[in-house]
Fold this protein.
Amino acid sequence: MDDAIVIGSGPNGLVAAATLARAGWRVRVLESQPRPGGALYSLETTLPGYVHDVGAAFFPFAHFSPALQHLHLDELGLQWRSGVYESAHPAPDGSCVSIARDIDLAARSFGADGDAWRRLAQWQADMGQRLPDALLAPLPGMRPALRLGITNLLNLAMAGISTSAGYSRRLFRTEAARRVIPGLSLHVDLGPEDFGGAALGLVLALLAAGGGFQVPVGGARAITDAILKRFDDSGGQIQLGTRVESIVVRQHRAVAVRTSAAEEIPVAKAILADVGAPALYLRMLPSESVGGWVRQSMRNFRYGWGTFKMDWALSDPVPWLSEEARQAAVVHAGDSIDDLIQFTNEARAGALPSNPYLVIGQQSLLDATRAPAGGHTLWAYSRVPSQLPDGWAKHREAFADRIEERIEGLAPGFRALIRGRAIFAPDDLDRMNENLVGGDLGGGSAQFTHQLFWRPVFPYFRYRTPVKGVYLCSASAHPGAGVHGACGYNAAQAALSDQK
Ligand SMILES: Cc1cc2nc3c(=O)[nH]c(=O)nc-3n(C[C@H](O)[C@H](O)[C@H](O)COP(=O)(O)OP(=O)(O)OC[C@H]3O[C@@H](n4cnc5c(N)ncnc54)[C@H](O)[C@@H]3O)c2cc1C
């Protein structure tokens, strides 16, 4: 019998599985899809030879996450590449401000706000590894928080109670610099005027300045392959195409999982679920094992917005007006704080954004293996309503055209380079991976009411659930979205410690 079953093979599931297997447990991963990796994988979605990341594409936690560090993936041949600039923020008026790991280069790009950026980057350098340690530790995480120091904690707490618009206006003088942090906060459902929305944008800016927005050679799937190799080396097994329907509980303890094929697979010690919190609490666990309050909050669980994602096969690199954008790993389209506020209001009102905010990844600029010789790839997403009154099918092509128009405005000549494109509306993402409910890429909203002790629901913020031996290890748990593996690692540590 297996000691542990991990349901789902996203990065959190695989990190959990590898952590347990390396501790000597017999571990089996059950994955419903025919391929592993969840939102951490790459496929040729446009044309043969063009490798596109299906979800996560750049990795600010690549070198800083303790969960990934302990797997020593670099020893397995995982290689990283980075751009001259990490994150460029151009506007159609030709202005552009960019974050780079080189402080002088970034300070020059920030122009009149160069000194303000220098202070921020120096702050990041002083905190070093202590920042990700504190962000990714299980709560309450007193030790890593204390190591960070009171002044740093207070400075971060200021961002934690600020809107990204307010924080940026206090920090920077120029409009170009002011759009950077709100643009980064909008990776998730945090608009410029949302309470507490500055924290994520600030953290992403600091991480970009520190480790950068790195990409792995060969595509995001290279990370999945490396974690799987670690898992395999420790005797772990993965079973693809096996969907778990429910968890069998006897005498308040999990004893098996039941698959869609009605197979019951027994387990000796623990089940770790790399699934959305509502799927675990409302569907997989027997209702009598979950308190009424928890079930009620799961019925009201708030997801983030939908995601509209595109891939392109290009004949040349994107001809950005901004020279810095031509050398950046990631480009953000968001002209000003007002533009981002309008975008947020439209998405929140259920309308298709008229001027879609975009996160754009230029992986092939950094990693030549992504495209055939001379060719290039491009990856982008916007945030959108999860559903439209008359469905996504009618709107996907037209919205994709709108996204291309927006890029064309920043890079005239872009459309002429397109050899192929692939479109993933929220319902496509949902079908690809059932954790991406309504196209939400974060495993639940990132609003402050869904963070820390409330993620996914109080008092189950430490991966344990009301059922002995069952742990939530997906991005629905603290610290949430992103490829850091911390949800999986922390859940695995909880399971190991409960068996001691
Ligand atoms: C378009 C997009 C862009 C993103 N960009 C970035 C980025 O650039 N950088 C970054 O750090 N993060 C990014 N993210 C977020 C990041 O990918 C996720 O936070 C991360 O993948 C979450 O990992 P996970 O293991 O919790 O879940 P997932 O990666 O979602 O994996 C869950 C797995 O569980 C499986 N599963 C679910 N239910 C069952 C079941 N009942 N039985 C069996 N298997 C099941 C699913 O099939 C899936 O394989 C992006 C996400 C998306 C969608």
Notes: DSSP finds 19 helices and 18 strands in the chain.
